[in-house]
Design goal:
Structural class: alpha/beta
Order of helices and strands: EEHEHEEEHEHEEHEH
Strand order of the largest sheet: 5-4-3-6
Helix content: 25-40%
Strand content: 15-25%
Largest sheet: 4 strands, parallel
Shape: elongated
Radius of gyration: 20 Å
Number of helices: 6
């Protein structure tokens, strides 16, 4: 875990691995975005497994969806007095190399976590997600779509693109369920927009044939559930 001054010069080099192995560790995921949490959790687990950590707590905004028996999950802001190692993971000032060894805008989202944690980036690792299956939205084959994201920074701007896609899928024999939180502007869809429980989204995705979306938390969730994206 190197540290740098504001010129980028390395000024200290300290190793937390012994403390991670023998002490009490808390990792705080400081973003509430679903995609960030899904992307970062596998590398938190890699830190814990690589260092044989036996006392690990993780705080996230999405504790109820993760399935890790070796980790205690606590709500955001949780702290204990006798923590030996506390590491926060978030999207900080992009060009501050004390936080980000690589610009998070141009590197894989999972590498943001591996850099901060000081573990080797080995490519994509899927998070362990609780698989929840509820009643299907339709008895027919269906596709899930998500046209919006929380940050409102990602859009497919082709004029009438989404409606054209919906019409094509419908003509091909599919029902189409729109499952993002924001409002719906499409016709001929199963409207499941709104602030529904994440468990409903998981079930809708597990039961569908595939998911089409933008770079959003729902795309990360579908990928984590082994749904074609």
């Amino acid at each position: 875990f190197p540290s740098h001054d504001n010129t980028g010069v390395e000024v200290a080099n300290f190793d937390l691995r012994d403390k991670i192995k023998s002490g009490k560790v808390l990792v705080a995921l400081e973003s509430s975005s679903l995609g960030d949490n899904l992307a970062w959790m596998p590398y938190v687990n890699k830190l814990i497994e690589d260092n044989n950590c036996s006392d690990a707590t993780v705080t996230t905004f999405w504790n109820n969806i993760f399935d890790y028996d070796n980790i205690r999950f606590k709500p955001p802001g949780y702290r204990e007095d006798d923590i030996d190692v506390l590491i926060g993971i978030g999207w900080y000032i992009e060009d501050d190399i004390n936080y980000h060894r690589a610009d998070p805008r141009i590197c894989p989202l999972q590498k943001v976590a591996s850099d901060i944690l000081g573990v080797e980036y080995v490519g994509e690792i899927k998070p362990r997600i609780k698989r929840i299956i509820k009643e299907r939205s339709t008895n027919r084959r269906y596709v899930c779509i998500g046209t919006e994201s929380t940050a409102a920074a990602k859009h497919w701007n082709r004029e009438d693109g989404w409606q054209t896609l919906v019409n094509l899928l419908s003509e091909s024999g599919y029902d189409i369920a729109i499952i993002h939180k924001q409002g719906n502007f499409l016709t001929n869809v199963i409207d499941k927009t709104g602030d529904l429980p994440i468990e409903d989204r998981i079930s809708d995705l597990i039961n569908c044939d595939f998911f089409i979306g933008i770079s959003s938390g729902l795309s990360w969730l579908a990928w984590a559930l082994d749904v074609p994206v």
